[in-house]
């Protein structure tokens, strides 16, 4: 079956611009996660959705970062006034929910802020 | 704060040799544990997981891992490495009952395989 998909695969933007990153989870998965992976590091948690609501957004670094999941499926991570330090790979993962603990990851969006 | 340590940043083994990648976590309650593999430019692929029960778990591609509570470790092993195993390996720990919360990842271990 189809896995988690993320678009775009690469995004180059200029400092100060606004970007949106999209995640399509595995069909039927109720839980969705965003992580950020800087070069040479492991992924770091950003935000977790259960259905439409953000159940844990403790990993968002500041108020320039925001994420939505309006219909409980596709999610969009939004970054305002991008900074060079935002350059990283943004990974999305989904999980079936209902007690399942396994997260399945997408290929990521590589963001480069010039 | 919860943390995951992968002490070896980079490991080189010969093809056909055995492999052990180390992972230690710090957490008070019963964790659930994962190993993921990441090839260049790719996302994370799940190798195996431990939630409870038998502390030796089998995964895909011939990998296994053993949970040792007394050592707070979850080391990944493979008896005979193949050239295609060259990649980056991440250990991850989760916590909380019911649905998963966030996963905490180690820094990763890069595996190089010599012919």
What does this structure look like?
The complex is a heterodimer of chains A (114) and B (115). Chain A has 114 residues and is mostly beta strands. Chain A is built from no helices and eleven strands. Chain A has strands spanning 5-7, 10-13, 19-24, 31-37, 44-50, 53-56, 65-68, 75-79, 88-95, 104-105, 109-113. In chain A, strands 2, 4, 5, 6, 9, 10 and 11 form a seven-stranded mixed β-sheet that branches. Chain A has a four-stranded antiparallel β-sheet with strand order 1-3-8-7, with no helix packed on it. Chain B has 115 residues and is mainly beta. In chain B, the strands form three sheets. In chain B, strands 2, 5, 6, 10, 11 and 12 form a six-stranded mixed β-sheet that branches. In chain B, strands 3-9-8-7 form a four-stranded antiparallel β-sheet, with no helix packed on it. The A-B interface holds A 4, 31, 33, 35, 40-45, 48, 50, 56, 58-59, 91, 93, 95, 97-108 and B 4, 32, 34, 36, 41-46, 49, 51, 90, 92, 94, 98-108.
In short:
The complex is a heterodimer of chains A (114) and B (115). Chain A is an all-beta fold.
Strand pairing plus helix content of chain B: what structural class? mainly beta
Number of alpha- plus pi-helical segments of chain B? 0
What level of helicity do the residues of chain A show? under 10%
Extract low-pLDDT stretches of chain B: none
Largest sheet of chain B: 6 strands, mixed
Arithmetic mean of pLDDT of chain A: 94
Per DSSP, what share of the residues of chain B sits in E-state strands of 2 or more residues? Answer: over 45%
Task: Give Rg of chain B in angstroms.
Answer: 14 Å
Protein chains sharing the most extensive interface = A-B, 30 and 26 residues
Give the tags.
heterodimer; A: 114 residues; mainly beta; 7-stranded mixed beta sheet; B: mainly beta; 4-stranded antiparallel beta sheet; 0% helix; 50% strand
Topology (elements, then pairings):
The complex is a heterodimer of chains A (114) and B (115).
Chain A: E1 5-7, E2 10-13, E3 19-24, E4 31-37, E5 44-50, E6 53-56, E7 65-68, E8 75-79, E9 88-95, E10 104-105, E11 109-113
Parallel strand pairs in A: 2-11
Antiparallel strand pairs in A: 1-3, 3-8, 4-5, 4-9, 5-6, 7-8, 9-10, 9-11
Chain B: E1 3-5, E2 10-14, E3 19-21, E4 24-26, E5 32-38, E6 44-50, E7 56-58, E8 64-68, E9 73-78, E10 87-94, E11 104-105, E12 109-114
Parallel strand pairs in B: 2-12
Antiparallel strand pairs in B: 1-4, 3-9, 5-6, 5-10, 7-8, 8-9, 10-11, 10-12
């Amino acid at each position: 079956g189809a896995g988690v998909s993320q678009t775009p695969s690469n995004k180059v933007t200029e400092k100060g611009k606004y970007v949106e990153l999209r995640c399509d989870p595995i069909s039927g998965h109720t839980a969705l996660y965003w992580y950020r992976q800087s070069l040479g590091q492991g992924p770091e948690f950003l935000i977790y959705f259960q259905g439409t609501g953000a159940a844990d957004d403790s990993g968002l670094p500041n108020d320039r970062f925001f994420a939505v999941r309006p219909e409980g499926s596709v999610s969009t991570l939004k970054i305002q006034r991008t900074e060079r330090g935002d350059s990283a790979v943004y990974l999305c993962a989904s999980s079936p929910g209902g007690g399942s603990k396994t997260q399945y990851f997408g290929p990521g969006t590589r963001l480069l802020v010039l | 704060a919860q943390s995951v340590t992968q002490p070896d940043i980079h490991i080189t083994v010969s093809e056909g040799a055995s492999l052990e990648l180390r992972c230690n976590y710090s957490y008070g309650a019963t964790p659930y544990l994962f190993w993921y593999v990441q090839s260049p430019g790719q996302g994370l692929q799940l190798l195996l997981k431990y939630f409870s029960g038998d502390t030796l778990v089998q995964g895909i591609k011939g990998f296994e891992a053993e949970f040792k509570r007394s050592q707070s470790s979850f080391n990944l092993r493979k008896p005979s490495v193949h050239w295609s195993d060259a990649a980056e390996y991440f250990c991850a720990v989760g916590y909380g009952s019911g649905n998963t919360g966030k996963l905490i990842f180690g820094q990763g271990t890069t595996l190089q395989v010599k012919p």
